[in-house]
Amino acid sequence: MIAALLPIRRCFDFSGRSNRTEFWSFFLLAALVAALSYSLDNAGYWLIGTDLHSWELSSRLGDAGRGVALVALILFPLPMLALTVRRLHDIDESGWFVVIALVPLGVFVLFPVMLLPGSEEENRFG
User: In the prediction, which pLDDT does 69 show?
Assistant: First the structure.
């Protein structure tokens, strides 16, 4: 299975480990979906002309962008949380370190940790 889609299948699995490829490919997928949503939502502003057709098109593109955003907001948070916990397990850290992301600017502390290589040998998480 494609590494970017594996976290969606394992969204309720908070045990075990996930490597950097799985984490960053899913992160990239989420970023691309967010960029698509933003682009569709704002494309209407670029296309607005004086005729009615451009207003309809801009409205439909905006609706599509908001629809993509809604689907992403429903689909991505739980797999990302589980994936982050498993990624922390891969570097032999407790999954509770994910709470750091809730602290203001805590994401900037957690981000470099996600870049660390995982344990080569088996650790306490598998």
Answer: 93
pLDDT for 85 equals 95
Q: Kindly list the domain boundaries of the chain, sorted by start residue.
A: 14-114
The token pair at 27 is 């992160």
What global pTM score does this model have? Answer: 0.86
Residues of the chain with pLDDT under 50: none
What is the rounded CA–CA span in Å between residue 102 and residue 42? 29
Tokens found for residue 78 = 């739980």
Max intra-chain CA distance, the chain = 65
On the CB side of 52, CA atoms within 13 Å amount to 0
